Amino acid sequence: MNNHFKKTIILSAAACAALAFSLSGCKKSYHEEFSETSAAVSVEEGILTDAETNVLPNESTTVTNSIGPTVPAANTGSQAQAAAPAPNTAAQTNTVTETKAAETAAPISFQSRDEKVYIMADDVNIRALPETGEVIGKANTGDSFHRTGYSDKWSRIEYNGQTAFISSDYTTTNVVEKKTSEAVAFNTGWEFGSNSKINSGSATLYYATGSNKKGRTVCVNAGHGTKGGESVKTLCHPDGTAKVTGGSTAAGNTHATAVSSGTTMSDGTSEAYVNLKVAKALKNVLLERGYNVLMIRESEDVQLDNIARTVMANNRADCHIAIHYDSTRSNKGAYFMSVANGIKGMYPVSTIWPESDRLGANVISGLSSNGVKIYGDGSMQTDLTQTSYSKIPFIALELGDKASDYSDSTVAVLAKGIADGIESFYS
Ligand SMILES: [Zn+2]
């Protein structure tokens, strides 16, 4: 925050608001993460449907046995089997004699295997039985299994101590590395995306790779750190209405700084540097606990304004936490920017604000449980740009102020406390 802010609560709030403007958020992680996978599955299903349509007629006409070139089409998809069991059966057994016979499901012939196979796509179903069996798990790129049986369509594998089945289409005996991260670019087509003015930078989505995957993505947003952000103005609210509380930009304004510079710690270190230090520590803790992490900023500068950060989080994360320090000098303790009453009826705030405040309360509780000093009751209503654009639970955290310690040991405690709060939020 700016040095001219006084130490009064109101001024602090203003400072926080300023910080909040610089903050960005985390949001749609899980669904986005698997969007590609889902698409892949859909394609597969589509193929199967086609196969079904094409194969059935052939089958009824071909009253003979051998499957021939026509059968492979039916083999392509697992869903096809569900819809048209006959063609699949025929493919597996090579003995389709007539349509009625084909309609009776027959067991799949598996070639015995004793090998390790890798999965080549995300979100691949693991079923208790082939074809329409219950989905008992999901496999992602780079996951590996012991395969005991193989057919063109289905592979029999060992999964959590039991026999399970997975589409052979997504398996290979060649080693496939697990996907550990990917760059996330801004998409101006995302909702509110056109309100962003600085969005040429990219964030990074890190995937949890352990066996404790949570299937959720947390956006960790190290506040500030956008060169040139001070000289650009963006709309405070998506609908163009004016701010209802003060901050780095006073109440009543419709436009605010795209990304402010942040405050300076008592030892001269920039707040942006300390925010990033905490963000990196939090990222590691969350990945260890099985959460995917969308890191908005990992260096001194990222060309993403507060709206871009928030919209990115909305589309690629499940929740969004912006890390900040206040501009006071009293070592006041931590608190979060709760949603201001004046914007609770405004879209999209109206759709998510109770969850944002609940996330904040859980995180403050997590910090407090780890011995972190809390300021007041741990919250302060503030109208932040990022709050106004968030469609997923979002909080701007003020972990302390200029006088706060940010040694490695303290930062480790802060990261643990925030992670504990997130776990509590999702429990
Ligand atoms: Zn800040």
Structure description:
It is built from 11 helices and 17 strands. The chain is 34% helix and 21% strand. It has 2 domains: 9-29 and 180-426, 3-Layer(aba) Sandwich (Aminopeptidase); 34-97 and 109-172, SH3 type barrels, CATH 2.30.30.40. A hairpin with a 3-residue loop joins strand 4 and strand 5 (154-159). It is an alpha+beta fold and 427 residues long. An 8-stranded mixed beta sheet has the order 8-9-13-10-14-17-15-16, sandwiched between helices. Mean pLDDT is 81; it is low at 1-103. The longest helix is centred in the first third of the chain and has 32 residues, at 30-61. The chain has helices spanning 9-22, 30-61, 71-75, 78-83, 85-93, 99-102, 271-288, 306-316, 349-369, 385-389, 408-426; strands at residues 111-119, 124-127, 135-139, 144-150, 154-159, 162-167, 171-172, 181-185, 202-206, 217-222, 233-235, 255-257, 292-295, 319-324, 334-339, 374-382, 394-398. Zinc ion is lined by residues 19, 22, 223-224, 262, 271, 324.
